[in-house]
Amino acid sequence: MKHLKLFSLTLAALGLLGLSACSSLDISQSKEEEKVTFAASNGEVEVPAHPERIAVQNYPDDIVTLGGNVVGTDSWAFPNPYLSKKQKENMVDLGSPSFNLEKLIAQKPDLIVTVDKSQVSDYEKIAPTVLVNYQEVNTMDKSLNFFAKLLNRENEKEAFIKKFDKKAEAQREKLKNHGIDPAKSRISLLELQGDKIYAYGDNFARGGQALTRGLGFQKSSKMTELSEGMGYAEVNAESLKDFDADYIFVDFKNADRAQYEALQKNPVWKNLKAVKEGHVVTMDYDKVYFFGGPTASMEQLSDYTEALIRQTE
């Protein structure tokens, strides 16, 4: 009788464990299958509430910053030197400008994020697809708000912003200790490509968000115009006087160093305030030209601080 009672109790316990396992499985499955409607540039899109395999153009940094799993991105964004090995562990290069469809299918995404309107219909056949309008996510805060909503990761967003702001404050103090007060200093961003000169706003990579949103530098009037418009413009040497500022940041490839040396001999360049005061800061093109996501911007806080101190003292 005693053994029978023990046997019954054992069966009951196993039954409870079975129910518990089934319950956990049901919850897990329902979480995976849960869908929400997201307002995107291509309309109302039904997306996974908790996407687990994301293919994204342009914005892998923004998604991995929030803890998302990016399984593929475009060839331009893929080399991002600021992302950790862990953040890139499942990420593959899907080609540019459009994704290679065979590679995309092989990654089995449950969400695709694109900036390419012409490809939306093709991508939709593979997974729910969200079209992004650059102007709607052209600053770090706008981008974090957009992707935190899309990925259901508001807590991760708040945690990152706190971390970013804390580091930015420390770097600002470091600059002030070296006689540089960002709040009282105007900047301009320039880039040399072959025989062309480009000027940038603070929302087109090139360290813009690290310098303004992070370190607190003020934009020159022309830089402000670009920030409020297309984000960049081709300029000529004669018009560089319009971009004069307390500090000018210039990036270029090693192959274009001769162009920078030629620019330094230009009379207009020589007469710029930043040039006369030795406040021209050169940056590594390969590290800043395309990478302006949240994680990149946070790492660039120290990159630009060190470059300022090194090149202007």
Describe this protein's structure.
This protein has helices at residues 2-33, 60-65, 101-106, 120-124, 140-151, 154-177, 208-214, 221-228, 257-263, 267-270, 273-276, 285-288, 294-312, and strands at 35-40, 43-48, 54-56, 70-73, 92-93, 111-114, 129-131, 186-193, 196-200, 218-219, 232-235, 247-252, 280-284. The chain is an alpha/beta fold and 313 residues long. The chain folds into 2 domains: 33-152, Nitrogenase molybdenum iron protein domain (Rossmann fold, 3-Layer(aba) Sandwich), CATH 3.40.50; 178-312, 3-Layer(aba) Sandwich (Rossmann fold). Strands 8, 9, 10, 11, 12 and 13 form a 6-stranded mixed β-sheet that branches. It has a 5-stranded parallel β-sheet with strand order 5-4-3-6-7. It has a two-stranded antiparallel sheet with strand order 1-2. Strand 6, helix 4 and strand 7 (129-131) form a beta-alpha-beta unit. Mean pLDDT is 91; it is low at 1-14 and 24-28. Pfam families: Peripla_BP_2. Keywords: Signal, Transport. It is found in: Cell envelope. Belongs to the bacterial solute-binding protein 8 family.
